[in-house]
């Protein structure tokens, strides 16, 4: 420990004077000799960094004000001893390096463990301490060490003062983004469970208004309009109403009880257009129970009926509303320039699952697939989307938002 690993008999001052501020220097490794210490016999090395500040700043408290002044500076060197593993600082020196011919390196500060470790912890936590603050803050070093050693301890801090942490998060733009994406991931897990877990879906039906299966999906999309708003089309869709996706669009409707649309949406942009969506369930049959002719499977009554339902809803809405709909403020006045156009509006029917097109052993049933795809691709209105396709599109959207390399398959 008394020798310098850079070379026996070499003046440490000469080395300190010759080092470049743009470089960090590390000595060759050597076994540390510290009896009665866990470091004894372990590999260690010195790390050096020199600094050439143009001036030195001093701060003195006079009364209630700090007086800051500058004076000419020289070279300083920080020397650290690390042992056993990277980043484990066992001792630290802050040294004044004289100009050539003006003396030897002078140690101004020497910290051993545990003080050296506390200084390192301080430097690590500086990024977490905001510059602005109207109140003084005191944090125990033991708490800082606990957070670094066990991030789960943050849960205990949250329980002690949840409002403070909520405020910190609400003030952090990136944190809000993470929370939004985390919430959406959770909703996609629920979406997937509704599709794949029959017992879970049936339990949700029991809690739904009128115990209707469609009501389960209606409520889910009410809570998560982004699932319909992003994946259905290349344009961004938003709910026409902030309160409810389902709207009456003919009879006593959005313009003046009649025809209802399960989801009334509109495109975003300078010019907005109305978009209709009808929502069935993932269990709704896509094809009839038997072939009409060999290799030809007709659409199920539910699919054909859903198509007719959407077409009728859109037709009546266009006839009653006209080419465009004026946005109305809460006080009943017109919103300047707030129009939603109804020029051949797009419409969607969300129904069934592509799993229905598989064979008994889970393989592709080509006749069923062909019959279904040819039917829906010939439809001008509405566009037919299955629930599993909607889930896949929503997962792709969230995956891209998180910056993943590739979307997860469902």
TrEMBL record:
Domain called Shedu protein SduA C-terminal: residue spans: 213-391
Name of the protein: Shedu protein SduA C-terminal domain-containing protein
Pfam families: SduA_C
């Amino acid at each position: 420990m008394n020798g310098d690993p850079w070379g026996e008999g070499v003046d440490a001052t000469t080395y300190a004077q010759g080092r470049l501020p743009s470089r960090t220097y590390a000595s060759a490794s050597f076994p540390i000799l510290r009896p009665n210490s866990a470091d004894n016999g372990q590999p260690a090395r010195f790390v050096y960094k020199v600094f050439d500040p143009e001036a030195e700043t001093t701060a003195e408290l006079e009364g209630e004000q700090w007086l800051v002044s500058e004076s000419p500076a020289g070279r300083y060197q920080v020397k650290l001893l690390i042992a056993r593993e990277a980043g484990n600082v066992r001792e630290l020196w802050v040294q004044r390096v004289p100009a050539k011919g003006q003396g030897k390196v002078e140690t101004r500060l020497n910290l051993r463990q545990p003080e050296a470790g506390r200084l390192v912890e301080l430097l690590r936590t500086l990024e977490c301490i905001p510059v602005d603050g109207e109140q003084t803050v005191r944090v125990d070093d033991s708490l800082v060490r606990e957070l670094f050693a066990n991030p789960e301890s943050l849960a205990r801090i949250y329980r002690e003062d949840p409002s403070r942490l909520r405020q910190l998060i609400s003030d952090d733009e990136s944190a809000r983004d993470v929370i939004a994406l985390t919430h959406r991931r959770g909703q996609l897990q629920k979406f997937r469970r509704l599709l794949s877990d029959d017992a879970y879906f049936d339990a949700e039906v029991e809690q739904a208004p009128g115990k209707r299966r469609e009501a389960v999906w209606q409520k889910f999309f009410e809570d998560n309009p982004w699932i319909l708003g992003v994946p259905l089309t290349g344009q961004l869709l938003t709910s026409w109403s902030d309160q409810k996706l389902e709207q009456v669009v003919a009879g006593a409707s959005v313009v003046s009880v009649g025809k209802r649309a399960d989801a009334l949406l509109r495109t975003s942009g300078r010019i907005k257009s109305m978009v209709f969506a009808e929502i069935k369930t993932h269990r709704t049959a896509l094809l009839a129970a038997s072939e009409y002719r060999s290799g030809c499977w007709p659409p199920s009554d539910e699919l054909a009926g859903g198509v007719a339902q959407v077409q009728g809803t859109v037709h009546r809405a266009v006839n009653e509303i006209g080419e465009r709909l004026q946005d109305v403020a809460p006080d009943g006045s017109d919103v300047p320039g707030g129009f939603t156009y109804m020029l051949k509006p797009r419409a969607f029917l969300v129904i069934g699952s592509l799993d229905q097109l598989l064979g008994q052993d889970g393989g592709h049933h080509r006749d069923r697939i062909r019959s279904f795809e040819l039917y829906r691709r010939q439809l001008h209105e509405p566009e037919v989307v299955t629930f599993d396709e909607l889930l896949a599109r929503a997962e792709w959207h969230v995956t891209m938002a998180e910056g993943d390399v590739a979307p997860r398959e469902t």
